[in-house]
Design brief:
The protein has 161 residues and is α+β, with helices and mostly antiparallel strands. Helices cover 48% and strands 13% of the residues. It contains 6 helices and 4 strands; from the N terminus they run αααβββαβαα. A 4-stranded mixed β-sheet has the order 1-3-2-4, covered by helices on one side. α2 packs across α5 (118-139), α3 packs across α4 (88-102) and α4 packs across α5 (118-139). Mean pLDDT is 81; it is low at 1-18 and 110-115.
Length: 161
Amino acid sequence: MKNENKLSTSWRASSGSTSEIIAINKLVVNTIETVVNRYKTADPFLIANSLNIEIDWSDFGPHPLGETTYFRNQPIVLLNNEIMYSPQRFFTMGHELGHVILHEGYGGYQTGRLSQGVLEHQANEFASGLMGMLYVEENGRQPDCYIDLVHAYGSPVNELD
């Protein structure tokens, strides 16, 4: 992105040392590139469909926005009905997809107010990178600023806290 602002970096810098963040970024960037190349899209819903990941919409109230759980070792992504028609559904699905791909086999996750730690950071990085690639896929160009991504696909900062 051309003009990344404090909003886009505030949550990144809050979890871990610089070397930890660099290691996370490399893992996440490589994973995103592999996934997008393999499935020929950055749309998290199309990727989930290709991976046979079940997506169910649930009535959670305001939070969580999403949750990943497993049934018989198969991931199920639960998304909040309140975001079904909002752009936030894309970031949230990308976040949950990040958990499925990066954290295979770890119990359940929630995207919401109490989300913290390295695994949440990685899932946010995955979703943010994926949304950047989805923007290019849909618009044929990079976003001018982070706010373009927020308007198109939701935000880990505005919607999760």
